[in-house]
Amino acid sequence: MKTGRLLAAGLLEKLKESLISVLPTIILVLALSFTVAPISSSILLCFLMGGALLILGMMFFTLGAELAMTPMGERVGTCITRSKRLWMIIALAFFLGFIITISEPDLQVLARQVASVPDSVLILAVACGVGFFLVVAFLRMLFSISLPKMLSVFYLLVFVLAFFAPDSFQSVAFDSGGVTTGPMTVPFIMALGVGLAAVRNDRHAVEDSFGLVALCSIGPILAILILSLIYRPDGGNYAASLTIPEIRDSVELWELFAHGIPEYMSEIALSLLPIILFFAVFQILVLKLPKRQLLKILAGLVYTYIGLVLFLTGVNVGFLPAGNYLGNVMGSSSYPWLLVPVAMILGFFIVRAEPAVYVLNKQVEEITDGAISEKSMGMALSAGVAFSLGIAMIRVLTGISIMWFIIPGYAIAIGISFFVPKIYTAIAFDSGGVASGPMTAAFLLPLAQGACAAVGGNMVTDAFGVVAMVAMTPLITIQLMGIYAKVKSRITAGREKVSDASYGLELLGDDEIIEL
């Protein structure tokens, strides 16, 4: 009875958080649809229905992540580290990275859209890339290797390979780094980092608990760049077709969503299955958790499943056509440059509706004991995504190559990483993969596609790359937050020294002051 009341209270709290996260985006789209960008009643109804499912989905998912995904990841990470066998740590890290990546729904979507490479080949290559870099991330934590140095080396390798890759594949590669680290991957991988850090007792353990997602985001980029060199594709294209729903009444509206729900039910079930099986084997052989804890994790998995089904149905059935249509209407209007400020405002609010962003912000606040608050993380991420969406729309309207933004952006991000506190660098590079989730892929990317089609741009080189831009800019904004915190700390320390010195002089007599 008590457990039921606690779960009900938890759901109510998550409902409030979901409303705060999602409502600003819904209100903004409604304001646009009634003013500068009129959309059809069918799309508007789908959008509103999708928004309702989005709110419910976030409510269930965030509670489920706290009850199941985070505890599972922490316990597995702790047990792997305590094994003290390097070969076992490497093997399990690779296997975990591999199965978690294959479980990510966004990767399946990406694979279907890249025409030049068979789906299975692309998925396996990306999964191997993430598995390899999860091993690298584990070894970095175990041996306390500097994250900025590792990022410098690996991103240098990325840009060297990008120079030889076909232009049409560059955006695909950088998009994949953000798409692969989605709502299924992030909670588990971040919790693994916390579990690994719990075994270490040194003062850098908290700082090193972040950075796993940062390194895992590099794997898909390198994997697709290498594939592009092997296959030498002519197109490397995304599918840009979109069916605009025509709804005549409420029954047809429900049928549209009812048709999508079973598809996502089976997709999410297949995605969760490898993680559940792995944890079950780990529980039987190693963990042996008591029945009460297992039931709590099981309830959390059910909430996670329900939440992801509702969330992805709402986003893909309701938000996707609205984003595409909105971009098309604004791009074909007399003032297409309005897309830039509109996209920035949308980006500022829409990142708060990403499920994995909630997990990141909450974990950062808990691990740092409130030194880096959930609110400050949210503001830094929102500012970064807003800036990235502005740049993305400028690319759509002008056709400027993505490399003109990606190379300087990562150079700045890696450059300042040597001057900020280590924990801010790790959190910043984790946040890049976290911010670019299903909301970006299913609303902001279609927005760019619709605008690109309206202005007659190249869909492959101009519209795509939105996910890559969203993944890049938080690296800078969160590290700038770290620089501000560092400067503020020094100013405060300086004032305290001056205050202490003044207090000491007040205690001295006149004769003693003269002698000084």
Write structural notes for this entry.
With 516 residues, the protein is mostly helical. It has one domain (2-240, 260-515). The chain has 22 helices and no strands. It is globular. Mean pLDDT is 82; it is low at 235-240 and 507-516.
Order of helices and strands: HHHHHHHHHHHHHHHHHHHHHH
| Strand-residue proportion | under 5%
Cα-to-Cα separation, first versus last residue: 72 Å
The overall number of domains is 1
Shape: globular
Computed over alpha carbons, the radius of gyration is: 24 Å
In the predicted model, the low-confidence regions spanning at least 5 consecutive residues are 235-240, 507-516
Mean pLDDT: 82
User: What structural class do the secondary elements suggest?
Assistant: mainly alpha
The total of beta strands comes to 0
Short description:
82% of the residues lie in helices and 0% in strands. It is mostly helical.
